[in-house]
Amino acid sequence: MKRTILAVLASLLLLVAPNALAANPGELVVAVDALGDHLDPHRAPGNSAHVLMALFDGITRLDADGNLSPSLASSWEAVSDTTWRFNLQQGVKFHNGEVFNADVVIANLERMSDPNEPRASYSFDVFKEWRKTGEYQFEITTVAPDPLLPARMKNFFIAPPSMLGNPKSDDFNRHPIGSGPFKFVEWIAADRIVLEANEDYYLGAPAIKRLVFRAIPEASSRVSELLAGGVDVVTGLQPEFIDLVKASKTAQVVTRVSPINEVIILRTDVESPLQDLRVRQAMNYAIDFDTIISTLLSGYAHRYATVVHPFVLGFNPDVEPYPYDPAKAKELLAEAGYADGFSIDFDITPSVGGTNNLEVAQAIVAYLGQVGINVNLRVNEYGVMRTLVYGDRTAAPMIRWQWKTWDNDPDGVFYGLFHTKGTGSFNSDPVTDEMIIAARFNLDQADRARIYGELQERVKEQATHIFMYYLDAIYGLSNRVNWQPRIDERLYFYGASLND
Q1: What CATH code is assigned to 260-472?
Q2: Which pLDDT tens digit goes with each residue over 78-131?
Q3: Which contiguous run of DSSP H or E holds residue 132?
Q4: pTM surpassing 0.85?
Q5: Which residues contact 92 (CB under 8 A, 6 or more apart)?
Q6: In this structure, which CATH number among 3.30.450.20, 3.40.50.2300, 3.30.70.250, 3.40.190.10 belongs to the domain 2-15+25-33+181-250+479-498?
Q7: Which of 20, 239, 480, 489 lies 20 to 30 Å from 391, alpha-carbon distance?
């Protein structure tokens, strides 16, 4: 099937390369697999983030390398262990002319803290109170020291007061107004969202004058459009299309390391052989991820020892990945009483895991089979899988999952996957819990880094997960575009330009 797709695309390349579609000057067209169904910044799902970042400003923001930077807040400081003070930009206006100040921030915080809006209020469990302390200054007090609060504020997109009056109104969702570098023009459901430059943006007008996000579900169709000149940026470029794009005279391939951790959760909260540490360690020894990366992933992935990337706070270079050692795996299984192996279920969804996810899962099943572990692979639709993991928690003892490292900080992934109360955790280790909490509520970044270094040693030894790899995010980019991908994979085009 892949050979057929490549043959068709290669034929298309020969046809369109000399006569690629003429691009509209100043217009950048971005192809994504799907558009979100909400543009209210306080209620929108994650797949709306690219558009929201163009329309709205957060209190803070991350730069392309994941470093925390000013946005609507020009500066911030911890004035006590539990209070952060934010100083705000002056001279900022919303697209409708309304003025930004501390009153606007407080009004937005009140709306976002509505307990009936769980998508918006997820961070407010650590907030004790917030208050205006000047026309362009406000403070937030937390229930405990929170070193990550300034970073969390990047997700607090601010809307003008006139749009906050009716919290159930659909008008704001369908016609959003922010203060960001682009203004809303048009939204054709399941097809495209069109934006135009905010010429009055407080940091200066963007070079891109018209920004279009197009929904193109099929990966091959996105590549066809790129080669034909119908789109300028393609996300999620599959490895099998890379050589084709490189061979064109109109486009190039650009990569950036992804912050997403690819893992297999090994449940110890249900009765199975996985409750034995030796079995879990054996499974980590049994799989040749270097070969999987070089073949199924075409080299566009990187091994890691746990879930901390080299660019993340506290990375411990002395903790190395489990080597491929099937003899060691068999030895450990025999010590645990499973010399003849055992059978176990493995839940996956093709929607989680990136490139060739199903083929990777099948390879893992084969490797485990070689040491005597008979794995029953269960393929689930994404919605079903989420219910198995986050809903009734009836997933198999082996779960293929992923978790993103936010803000170049490991707190979220450690708490989410390893703490007893983490939403993606199916294991409990009091020592690990204590270390995670010690780092979470610690304002001393050097001490937090030390704790995370020790945590990596602990979680590798406990082997409650099979630690796989982190992927490269791969993009197809028209030669007319000057843009570099971000470490967080957000599609942010303020600062991009075109060679028109």
Answers
A1: 3.10.105.10
A2: 999 999 999 999 999 999 999 999 999 999 999 888 776 655 555 677 899 999
A3: strand 127-134
A4: yes
A5: 57, 72, 99, 100, 179, 202
A6: 3.40.190.10
A7: 489
Dihedral (Cα; 432, 438, 440, 446), 10-degree rounding: -110
Q: Largest alpha-carbon pair distance within the chain?
A: 73
Q: Which two tokens stand for residue 473?
A: 């995010």
CA distances from 115 to 88, 111, 112, 125 (A): 26, 9, 8, 10
Q: How confident is the model at residue 304 (pLDDT cuts 50, 70, 90)?
A: very high
Contact 489, 261 (CB under 8 A): no
Top-level CATH class of 55-163?
alpha beta
Residue ranges of domains in the chain:
2-15+25-33+181-250+479-498, 55-163, 260-472
How far is Cα 481 from Cα 473, in angstroms, rounded to an integer?
18
Distances (CA, A) of 139 to 145, 146, 149: 14, 13, 11
Strand partners, 282: none
Spatial contact of 351 and 47, defined as CB atoms under 8 Å apart: no
Residue in the block written with tokens 């176990």: 344
